[in-house]
Amino acid sequence: MVVPSRDQCLELLTRHAMPAHIRRHSLLVTEVALFIAQGLNRNSCRLDLKVVEAAALLHDIGKMDGLKTGENHAELGARMLGDIVSGPVARIVAEHIYLDVSQTGGPLTESLIVNYADKRVKHDRIVSVRERFEDLIERYAKSPPQAMLLRGKLDLYVALEQTIFSHLPIAPHDPEIMGITL
User: Fold this and answer.
1) Domain residue spans in the chain?
2) First to last CA, the chain
3) Of 6, 36, 45, nearest to 120 (Cα)?
4) Alpha-carbon span 129 to 161, nearest angstrom
């Protein structure tokens, strides 16, 4: 199996009837992930940009079906991609909503970059990690314990953000990243 091209990924999104708003979100996540990965590659990382692009484009392919069935959309998306895409791409799709404290200090991987980029895009605009999590808490936390769990995840993403940007010549809220558009 090979890493699918951008056009092949977009065809997969069309074939799976991804709604326009989720498609726009995925396209912007891709631009953010590629911007960060390219910057990291200029500073001694060796991230596979083709894998970053494909995984970012496909990261929410299971979103609509997951909302209908109640299944975890990341795991569902990875299963949907099954034998269609390379193992690393499907694995990143499966992992894009998970972050463990042991990962926040690096090493920086394609999976972490796609995961982080997804937490910087609220619908179809770039926001801070904090704003993104406030939105997630408002939309998905159905109880105080769930809200507290998401706030704990916010702390993990802030730590990951510090690790990522310690290898970049810009800050998380500089115009170079905040100004990325489709």
Assistant:
1) 6-128+160-178
2) 29
3) 36
4) 8
E strand segments, the chain: 121-122, 125-126
* 6-128+160-178 is a CATH 1.10.3210 domain: yes
Q: Is the pTM of this model over 0.90?
A: yes
Q: What is the pLDDT of residues 56-101, one digit of tens each?
A: 999 999 998 878 898 889 898 999 898 788 789 999 999 988 899 9
**What are the pLDDT digits (tens) for 109-132?**
999 999 999 999 999 999 999 999
Which one, of 48, 45, 46, lies nearest residue 3 by Cα?
Answer: 48
Nearest 5 degrees, angle CA 168-CA 93-CA 116? 25
The tokens describing 131, both together, are 């704003």
